[in-house]
Amino acid sequence: MTRIANAKVLVSGAGIAGTALAWWLAEHGARVTVVERADAPRDGGYKVDIRGAALTVIERMGLLDAVRSQRTGVRTGSVVDATGRRVASMDADTFGGRVHDDAELLRGDLARSLREATGDRVDYRFGDAITALGSAVTFESGRQETYDLVVGADGLRSRTRELAFGEGGVHDLGHYVAIYSVPNHLGLDREELTYVGPGRTALVYSTAGQTDAKAMFLFTDPGGARPRGREEQEAFLAEAYAHEGWEVPRLLDALAGADDFYFDSISQARLDGWSRGRVTLVGDAAYCASPASGQGTSLALVGAYVLAGELATAGLDDGPRRYEERMRPFVERNQRLGPANIKRMVLRSRGQVRMSMGMLAVLNRLPGKERLLAKVVEPIHRAATAITLPVY
């Protein structure tokens, strides 16, 4: 058995999955290098949730207090109509599908906490990326090195996956997402507002400790080729929302000045296997559940824990297979949330919008509405806890 202790491991991607995996691999005695295409760590970002089994992982890393101290502090969520009237309001945890001790924080804050926790046990190389996999790994910088294991943690559009597995593996759910920072012209104080139109949803929220706000757009794919490059994506987004009301025009006006624009299809990674030779995938690169699932961050944390643990107990030869056997039922359970949730997040027709707004208005007046709405999030909680984590 080839043991993980003292093994030389390359992790491609310094996001949540990559940094969490680096922490656990170092904990098990591996010599870890993380390579990241971006020139520097990305702070801030959009808000993400840590639920269920992922909280256990964070606790075992000794980071639970740090995570809780960085919560977004969002207090309420409301659905608004085209005039800005609040059709329904509820507490933020119910609005975001959180229960018990689930935590919401900014992606960049979580990534920074994970990175800082690795200390000097992990070598981070920013501004570089893998270009070829063979007997040695070739990087954009021109350097070549050999490793006992290469792990792709470089997201839905994983270059590592493409090099090792070939093209494919990405399944679109028929929608797009865009996120970027905007001025907080609505004066939101830890509040989230969501506007729903036919095939078009727009929301804006503010979090604790930030003076600006984040705008998010979720919309049905109008057809045609996926836009590439920021200029095409901006035009695509503006055209999709050209006739929407509420604050949408003003939010779109802020796009030109945003330096954190993110745009992609809402998609899932679906692969028959997550390992090939001495290359293994983790997080979105292996099993992206899509932003609609609300479980991408949790899957990344749990996957990193299980992969490192199985490598530590079963070695480099058998560990990847055991990792996949343990994780796949959990992944499939959580991936099923994506297609179901996006149908509720983006409504197809004006009739659906009117019906949904009417039902929300009635529900908003009922006593105990939070208790009734909590039943809607039960599938998320069941999926988030649908794995028993060994102690490695």
From TrEMBL:
Domain of life: Bacteria
GO molecular function: FAD binding
Pfam families to which the protein is assigned, alphabetical: FAD_binding_3 (PF01494)
Record-linked Gene3D superfamilies: D-Amino Acid Oxidase, subunit A, domain 2, FAD/NAD(P)-binding domain
Positions of the FAD-binding domain: 7-314
PANTHER family associated with the record: MONOOXYGENASE, OXIDOREDUCTASE-RELATED
Stated name of the protein: 2-polyprenyl-6-methoxyphenol hydroxylase
UniProt organism field: Asanoa ishikariensis
